[in-house]
Each structure stands twice: as structure tokens, then as C-alpha cells.
Amino acid sequence: MALTLAEQLSFLHYPRPFKNPNYTKNLNRRTKNLKTVLTQERERERAERERRRLEKEEQERKADNAMDVDTTNNANEEKTSASHTAVLDEDIPTYTSIEAPPSLLPPRHYCDITGLEAPYTDPRTGLRYHDKSVYELIKGLSPSVAKDYLAARGVNPVVK
């Protein structure tokens, strides 16, 4: 039996040292969607901030009990302003903690061909285009290519 050149050069039957032969897939592991992951991350960050705040309050209480020398109003005001500043420092917004309402501006449309702003839409294909030269290109596209452009934008392609 003569082996072909492809069979001679094939690495199919050689051992693959980069794979662990003892690996088994965990069937109980479930995938999580993005919203779940972000919610869990936000909750973890909130719990961590709360834990740090409680630790600081406990340390301040211990320090106040250890150094009970002057209890005038000025000292109390300084302590409350310092603790208020510490709380504000912990609430600095991060990438995952910023929440904003939806924009009041209308959404921008971009050209499916060039990626530039698209004030026009082709009525036949539904493709958005930037200017006359791009429209000339769109008129010459086949329906299957137009469907591909629409699918890339995430639109259910219905080409007439």
C-alpha cells in the first residue's frame, strides 16, 4: 500500500504534547451572558468598597479610643471632614461603575462601504452610503453581496 504525499506529510497521528491527555471537560460549568458577568463584577466591587469602609471606621474608632486627649468641636469637625473625604475617594467612578442614561441625540448612521457618516440610504438594497461615488458602487453590487454588507451591519437582509 503506497502512501500519498499528503499522508506522508500529515501530522495527524503524531502525539500532540501541547494537549493534556488527562483533560476532561467540566460538564457542570455554565456559560454566563455579559449582563450577568457585569452585575456580578459590580456587586463584588460594591462589597469590597463596603468592607474597606467598615475597616476604616473600625481603625478610626480604635484610634479615637487610644488618643482621647482633646474632644473640642474643632477636632470633631476635622475628623468628620477627613472621614467624609475618605468615603469620597472610595467612590471614584471606574469603567464598570459609570452608568449613564440613553443619549438624547439621534443615533449616527455610517456608510456600509466606507465607514464614513452616511446621510443617504439606497432604497433598493437598504445599504447606507456616504456620497454619489459610493452610490455608483452600490448600484453595481449583486443582491448576495448587498446581503453580506447588511448582515455585517447586523440587519436582517431583505433585498428586493
TrEMBL record:
Keyword Transcription regulation belongs to the record: yes
GO terms of biological process kind: chromatin remodeling
Gene Ontology CC: Ino80 complex
InterPro entries: INO80C/Ies6 (IPR029525), Vps72/YL1_C (IPR013272)
Domain of life: Eukaryota
Compositionally biased spans, kind Basic and acidic residues: 40-65
UniProt keyword annotation of Transcription regulation present: yes
The entry's keywords: Nucleus, Transcription, Transcription regulation
Region named Disordered: 36-103
Domain Vps72/YL1 C-terminal: 109-138
Subcellular location: Nucleus
Full protein name: Vps72/YL1 C-terminal domain-containing protein
